[in-house]
Amino acid sequence: MTLDYADGRLQVEIVNAAPPARRRPTAAHWPPGGRGVLGMRERAELHGGELTAGAQPGGGFCVQASLPYPAAGTGRP
């Protein structure tokens, strides 16, 4: 996980590495009908931010978000 603050924005990146091939989860392991990524994206946009998420070329998954964050003592982004 990486957190960074610059130019009035909080940048967050979370990457999970691919599990070993013999233990890689399949669609059958996940419950249907989730709104996880969509819900995170909607909440980020609601607060003036953006979020991207997706599978990585070598396996694993990455979520990146950029959110406005007020400068210290100003109460404003």
Mean of pLDDT: 82
Distance separating the two termini: 23 Å
Q: Largest sheet, described in full?
A: 4 strands, antiparallel
Give the proportion of residues in helices.
10-25%
Structural class: alpha+beta
- Number of DSSP helical runs: 1
Mind sketching the topology for me?
Blueprint (H helix, E strand, L loop, with lengths): L1 E5 L2 E8 L19 H11 L3 E6 L5 E8 L9
Antiparallel strand pairs: 1-2, 2-4, 3-4
What would you say this structure looks like, in words?
This protein has 77 residues and is α+β, with helices and mostly antiparallel strands. It is built from one helix and four strands, in the order E-E-H-E-E. It has a four-stranded antiparallel β-sheet with strand order 1-2-4-3, with helices on one face.
Summarize the structure.
Helices cover 14% and strands 35% of the residues.
Features:
1 helix; 4 strands; flat; four-stranded antiparallel sheet; alpha+beta
